[in-house]
Amino acid sequence: MSLFLVLLFVAALLAVLVTLIRGLVNMAQATDENWQGPGPSPRALKSNKLMQNRVLFQAGAILIIVLLLLVAGGRGS
After folding, report:
1. How far apart are CA 49 and CA 13, in angstroms?
2. pLDDT tens, 14-62?
3. Among 2, 37, 44, 76, which is least packed by CB within 10 angstroms?
């Protein structure tokens, strides 16, 4: 069980890292024209979505850590 959680945690960390890098690349390619105008540009919407995904992946990683600590604490008793 704990090996599965560790592998799941590593996958969550990789998902966070990939999403973070994609978001940074998206922002680095932006120009002033992308952030001006009457509404959000497609690049701004993509940046927002990448940030939301990163936060969700981070929340999943924290949840997995909590589960790992619960499993490890149950073995100590």
Report:
1. 18
2. 999 999 999 999 989 888 777 677 888 888 899 999 999 999 999 999 9
3. 76
Structural domains in the chain (count): 1
Beta strands in the chain (DSSP E): none
Place of tokens 């890098």: 21
Q: Is residue 61 part of a domain?
A: yes
In a domain, 67, yes or no: yes
Contact 55, 19 (CB under 8 A): no
Q: How far is CA 68 from CA 17, 28, 77, in A?
A: 21, 36, 15
At residue 30, the pLDDT reads 81
61 is in which domain, residue-wise?
2-31+43-76
